[in-house]
């Protein structure tokens, strides 16, 4: 829902190049820890690679705003953790955070997990993340498949996620329970380089689904 400098593993490099559209690897969930991974190995990537995979880190303030409005399960899966900006903020609030990503960026589990193909067996918590925007709908759909009834999925998305015929059809069958629109701009920094970002041109919101919810969505304003 986050490298060294040399990559000598051509097979792994090709796997990551294929991105979220390739390969399924089974994962297991046991208690509060991940286990039994099929080993892919850590990889090294340039800034070009990171941009290619749509890596935009979220300022931790976004989590503070969400947690001031919503209650979540004690176990959270951050499935696009990047460098851990959201995971660290969640951990500071006492959550047990499972941090995974397609590409290891020095935080979380070093073994890649393709969220659109892989899963955690018997996961019982909520999912909170800022997904790669070009796969945002697929991430939401997959997250709702991975949580149990009554559990929550919170996605930090551009406000324009509300648009589009394809997403409209999804919303009609899977309405978010609540959308928290940030009245002031929050920052997502390419490659986590917040020092290069002075302001944001995009409007963001937290979209919160509760699996099994049926009804009209509520919109609230935060920040």
Provide the fold topology.
Elements: H1 10-18, E1 28-30, E2 33-35, H2 47-52, E3 56-58, H3 61-67, E4 75-78, H4 85-92, E5 96-99, E6 126-129, H5 136-146, E7 152-158, H6 165-173, E8 178-182, E9 188-190, E10 204-210, E11 218-222
Parallel strand pairs: 4-5, 4-6, 6-7, 8-11
Antiparallel strand pairs: 1-2, 3-9, 7-10, 8-10
Task: Characterize the structure shown.
The longest helix is centred in the middle third of the chain and has 11 residues, at about 135-145. Helix content is about 20%, strand content about 20%. The chain has about 220 residues and is of the alpha/beta class. The protein has a single domain (about 10-15, about 25-220), classed as Rossmann fold. It has a seven-stranded mixed sheet, sandwiched between helices.
């Amino acid at each position: 829902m986050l490298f060294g400098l040399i990559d000598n593993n051509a097979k792994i490099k090709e796997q990551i190049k294929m991105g979220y559209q390739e390969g399924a690897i089974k994962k297991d969930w046991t208690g509060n820890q991940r286990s039994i991974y099929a080993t892919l190995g850590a990889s090294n990537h340039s800034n070009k690679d990171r941009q290619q995979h749509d890596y935009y880190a979220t300022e931790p303030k976004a989590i503070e705003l969400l947690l001031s409005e919503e209650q979540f399960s004690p176990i959270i899966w951050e499935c696009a953790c990047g460098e851990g900006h959201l995971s660290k903020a969640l951990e500071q609030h006492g959550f047990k955070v499972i941090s995974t990503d397609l590409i290891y960026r020095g935080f979380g589990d070093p073994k890649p997990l393709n969220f659109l193909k892989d899963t955690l067996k018997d996961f019982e918590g909520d999912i909170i993340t800022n997904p790669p925007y070009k796969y945002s709908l697929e991430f939401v759909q997959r997250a709702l498949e991975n949580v149990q009834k009554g559990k929550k999925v919170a996605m930090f998305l551009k406000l324009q996620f509300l648009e589009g015929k394809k997403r409209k059809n999804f919303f009609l069958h899977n309405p978010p329970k609540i959308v928290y629109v940030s009245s002031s701009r929050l920052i997502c920094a390419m490659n986590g380089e917040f020092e290069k970002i002075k302001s944001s041109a995009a409007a963001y919101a937290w979209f919160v689904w509760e699996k099994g919810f049926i009804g009209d969505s509520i919109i609230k304003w935060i920040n």
